[in-house]
Amino acid sequence: MPELLLELFSEEIPARFQRRAAEDLRKGVTNALVDAGLVYEGARAFVTPRRLALTVTGLPARSPDTREEKKGPKVGAPQPAIDGFLRAAGLASIDDAKIESDPKKGDFYVAHISKPGADAVELLSGILPKILADFPWAKSMRWGSGSFNWVRPLRAITATFGAENEEPVVVPFASNELVSGQTTFGHRFLAPDAIKVRRFEDYASALERAKVVLDIDRRKDIIRTDAEQLAFAQGLTVIADEGLLEEVAGLVEWPVVMMGTFDPDFLKLPEEVIIATIRANQKCFCLRDAEGKLAPNFIITANTVATDGGVVITAGNERVIRARLSDAAFFYQGDLALPLEHGLPKLEDTVFHAKLGTQFQRVERLVKLAAEIAPQVDANPERAKRAAMLAKADLTTGMVGEFPELQGLMGRYYAVAQGEPADIATALEMHYKPLGPTDKVPTEPTSIAVALADKLDLLTGFWAIDEKPTGSRDPFALRRAALGVIRIISENGLKFPLKVEPDLLAFFHDRLKVSLRDAGARHDLVDAVISADSNDILQITQRAEALSTLLSSEDGKNLLAGYKRAANILAAEEKKDGKSYPGNVEQDKLQLAEETALAFAVDAVHAAVSAHVAKDDYKGAMAELATLRAPVDAFFTAVLVNDADPAVRANRLNLLARLRDTMHLVADFSKVAG
């Protein structure tokens, strides 16, 4: 069957857009093909700095003929309804429709619409220019005199269609001032001549000969493997950096790996500063020696095969890195010369948010809040206040001004150098964390106090000015802050009730549900342990874990079935009687041994569960509930709840209410599925 080859050749596409663009091209074309009736077998998209490419295999030569039946209005319907039907069906007159009968609905019009298939090339000629015109680049530009937008100037379009053993045809269309053809170009420097291509197989091999590796993942593998082998030969290892690897693979079409060096004297700088400098300025990988220490070497990925073996390229990178590390050393020494707290007045000139004041005002709030939190997390209030006061001071330093991603970390380095206690220095770095689901959580009390203060101030502040996340929009990373609070509390086992307004508490509940579900908890179990006023994150987490353990056992499953039966009976009878049953069981009205046994068991378990809950021992509480399985089973086997004697019936309904209320001490079992 025929295949489609499409290549959009342009000036350099920014690396951060490439992978998404390849996927957007694949989805856009294949969705349009299916909508046009051209069902395909497979599709693969590729991207390099200078081209987006797509191959779609197993396409038919033309779309199939179709026949559609469109039901219309009743015979005798008003003329506007008939006119609408004719327009929708594409009929010139109602006489072109057929009349069919329905025993219940009477006679109505039906249009039988036949649509002949169309040639695939003809369909593609209409599909492809629309794909280009509507392409969803995050940023695009215009050039020349046209109105066409693309991420960078588009230089050539290749579009061929044909079967394996046939000469393919060019899919004819124009975009901007370009006309589709079957000509592409190789590597900008190593093989810049035009290349005529027929289909994907010869296209890919021709590009390989022209020093272009089409697949971005293969370029990544080449860079990774060659870098590791080059490092290994020197007794070194490459510091893994997946983000940098993705970026570098998007900067080259023919990766060539080399190694450079820098003055070992720069190793006196914090290693994070060296890595950030080399990464940000030259897109190079750093290395470690056999002892795990940062080595005075780096890996360069060039986009050419140098005739001198890379001597000039390496020397150029070494020269730039030397200058950048010299700048970093200048910033570092200058920052060390001034105590951190000397930077605090500068925070008065930095606006945190127009409605929430300056960074200095935020620091004042953090100091107060950290002191309030400290006793609850076993931190020293004065140490927490000191750490909170210095938490944002490194924002005024030269190093953080150059590398904002080092904020907090540089605060720790400067605090240590200036003699601050270790827990305060650690808190300056850790109060920002966790920044993501795999990031570290602060564990020292001072760090915990400041980290919680930082995130709670952020959340309560933006809630107060009604700047809440909406849909996918969360410019102030409030979801991340809430998840950070949740992780700090739960992973440190903290008893830390959240004292926030109901709306913000509900937001925490939503984030906690996401967190627990991501950890594998069933959504219904999470709902069962969260109520509107639940403000203890640790308690909710422990209840969900304990409930999951209970319901994974046979006793738990059977007890849940008994609870559901009891709750259903209660709901039905309370609705019928127009009243609720409060659970007041009268011993003298218990007639059968099974109901007496259940009554005594429920009373004992109620007391035991209450004691366990008071100690936050939810596993113990769930274990007590599990002992009710046998008396509940026996009760429903032997006892008729709706006894003829109204007093006996009411007492048995109260017993079921007492059972329900006892189980609700730890979770709302009505929200559990099953």
UniProtKB/TrEMBL annotation:
Q: Please state the Enzyme Commission number of this protein.
A: 6.1.1.14
Any single Pfam family the record assigns to this protein:
tRNA_synt_2f
Give the UniProt keywords, A-Z: Aminoacyl-tRNA synthetase, ATP-binding, Cytoplasm, Ligase, Nucleotide-binding, Protein biosynthesis
The kind of enzyme this is, by top-level EC class, is ligase
Positions of the UniProt region annotated as Disordered: 59-78
* A molecular function GO annotation: ligase activity
Q: Where would I find the DALR anticodon binding domain in this sequence?
A: 561-664
Q: Where is this protein localized, as stated in its record? A: Cytoplasm
Q: Which PANTHER family match?
A: GLYCINE--TRNA LIGASE, CHLOROPLASTIC_MITOCHONDRIAL 2 (PTHR30075:SF2), GLYCYL-TRNA SYNTHETASE (PTHR30075)
Quaternary structure (record): Tetramer of two alpha and two beta subunits.
Protein name according to UniProt: Glycine--tRNA ligase beta subunit
Q: Which organism is it from?
A: Devosia yakushimensis
